[in-house]
Amino acid sequence: MTFKKNLHWFLYPLFLLSCARQTAPTGGPKDTIPPHLIKAIPPKGQTNFRDNKLELLFDEAIAVNNPKEQIIITPDINKEYDATAKKNRVIVSLKKKLKDSTTYSFNFRDAVQDITEKNSAVNLKIAVSTGTYIDSLVIAGRAVDPVTNKELKDITIALYQSDTFNIFKHKPVYFTKSDQKGNYTLENLKPGYYKIYAIDDKNRNLVADSKSELYGFLSDSIYLTKNLKGTSIPLIKLDSRTLKLTNSRPYNTYYNIKLSKSLTRYKLTAPGEIIISSFGDDPANIKVYNTFNTKDSVAVKLHGLDSIANTIDTTLYIKFSERQVKPEAFNSKSDGFRVIINKGTIHGRILFNKPLLDIRYDSILYRVDTLNTITFSRENFQWDSLHNTLTIHKAFDKKIFVKPEQSKEQKAQQAKRKATPDIKSQAKKNINNELYFGKGAFVSIELDSTKQSSEQLKPLALEETGIIFTEIKTNQPNYIVQLLDKSFKIVQSSSNNQKSAFEDLSPGEYQIRLIIDINNDGKWTPGNFYKKEEPEPIRFYRNEKGNPFINLKANWEVGPLLITYP
To answer: Tens digits of per-residue pLDDT, 318-328?
Structure first.
């Protein structure tokens, strides 16, 4: 009885807490209207600003969302400010005095939200000046991945003016971030020379990390005297760190060399030794296999090259482990085999996890049916020793796929067999369009061999494929036209041809990419910040509606599709 009698004393505090808690009202239509700015102190465009705070008044109760990340103040003041909300007001308190005769821009992005549905105030920006006028020039454009032509959101776009500025070491003074569609605007800029760059600043330190972050830049300075729009910045992931040897040691049955970053190619040499090696799990690792004539250490010279033409030249002393260990299993994987009837070709690749020692060509067959078999020989194979990749290309007589017309007797016998099937013949495997690899067709450098395997390949007739025609208009002497599938894998390519025909295509979605091959090396070059070289220009085909995808159906011809540069 005593507890029940005094229960109300426990309930009163809970009641008071529930009354004090600020919550969204229940019931009624969902609030979709963002907060609206009623008044700013100081007002937008205030000059001779000397105060240490800004106060914004809204038409409803608001909250502040992650202000140190959402609010961008330029020139940068190193986040030396606090932003708080009280009912329908936001107060930004500055912790240090602003520079004289300088225009400061406060971009609140998604920092100010209503407390009901978290609607953010739209385009909330305040510019004030500690001098007698407001700088008003603008640079605007788009952040984009040049390889895929996709817009990049939440990218930091920044400016600098010093010739000694390094985007991998120094923080910018002027910066903003791209929106959901990759668009950016740098506002309230004063006239002068600027360098512009962009980083996907994942660690939020305003410095580019080339190991893990996308970055991009324009090599030429911008002389800003009027508003500049349409300034696109291509961002790439390109490791600009120094190329170094980080580790080398015996591992399992091979010797592993590890570098600080990926290589594009390398060479290993040692007097009197035949060295067999390949890239390991990635191009930053090299596996050297034990083919040496001695058990002592051998001095091996390594020359390597990375994607921005940095080189490494060093000597390693390679010695293999004397422990008896079981070699890694020898694996292979076929990739992209296609049989084109009207061209009479078989083409595809096989990927291995070890270098090859031997190929037994007579163990590789393409069985069209029980009567017709296509064989292979040495000239049909091309070996990429760095990547352990075997490319197979075979031309054959396409008449092999032309079935002779059956006589009436043959048709009758065939109908009879279908009506009364032979149980014994049913038990036999029906060989039809089979790429066959016999047991031991491939032997690795460690003398283990592949198992028997086969793969069904559906030959493509002319009426089952399509053609895409392209036309290029440019004054550039060297360029590459690439046909891509929807995952951006290169299907076919053509160099320096104003008009191209991409034939024997399976039905599906494609894209066309034009690369301006400035250095004429036959591939896209991603540039080099230290040499002030931008990535080579890329253009994608887009139709009149701006759609880059080409929907190709069987027995269709599409085009010519025009790409113009510039």
So the answer is: 999 988 888 99
Closest CA to 183 of 222, 226, 232: 232
Compute the radius of gyration of the chain from its Cα atoms.
Answer: 34
**What is 137-234's CATH superfamily?**
Carboxypeptidase-like, regulatory domain (2.60.40.1120)
Given a contact cutoff of 8 angstroms between Cβ atoms, the answer to whether 233 and 143 are in contact is yes
Reference 367, options 268, 256, 457; nearest CA is: 457
Global pTM? 0.83
Q: Please give the C-alpha separations between residue 297 and each of 270, 290, 301, in angstroms, as whole numbers.
A: 11, 11, 13
d(CA 466, CA 491): 13
For residue 313, the surrounding DSSP H or E stretch is strand 311-318
DSSP state of 121: P
Residues in CB range of 540: below 8 A, 6 or more apart: 149, 511, 512, 513, 514, 548, 563
CATH of segment(s) 245-318: 2.60.40
Topology (CATH) of 463-565 = Immunoglobulin-like (2.60.40)
The edge-to-edge listing of strands for the beta sheet with 466-474 is 499-505, 466-474, 557-565
Assigned token pair, 547: 């759609």
**pLDDT at residue 444 above 60?**
yes
Counting every residue written for the chain, the total comes to 566
